[in-house]
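User: C-alpha cells in, sequence out, please.
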C-alpha cells in the first residue's frame, strides 16, 4: 500500500466516523474557555513578577555593544 492510498482510506474512514457521530445525535462539544496568553495565566496565579525578576537576574551581566 502506498502513502496516497493509505491517506485516502484514512480520510474516508474519518469522514464516516464524523458522519456516524452526527447521525446518532451526539451532543455538540462544550466550548472551551477563550485562549489566554501565558503571561496572563502567570499573573492570575501570582507568579508573573517572579518570572520577571528571574529574567532580570539572568541578563544582569549582559551588555549590548553596537
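Assistant: Sequence out:
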Amino acid at each position: 500500500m502506498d502513502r496516497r492510498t493509505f491517506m485516502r482510506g484514512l480520510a474516508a474512514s474519518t469522514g464516516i466516523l464524523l458522519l456516524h457521530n452526527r447521525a446518532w445525535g451526539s451532543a455538540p462539544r462544550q466550548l472551551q474557555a477563550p485562549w489566554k496568553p501565558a503571561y496572563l495565566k502567570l499573573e492570575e496565579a501570582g507568579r508573573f513578577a517572579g518570572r520577571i525578576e528571574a529574567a532580570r537576574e539572568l541578563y544582569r551581566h549582559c551588555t549590548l555593544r553596537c
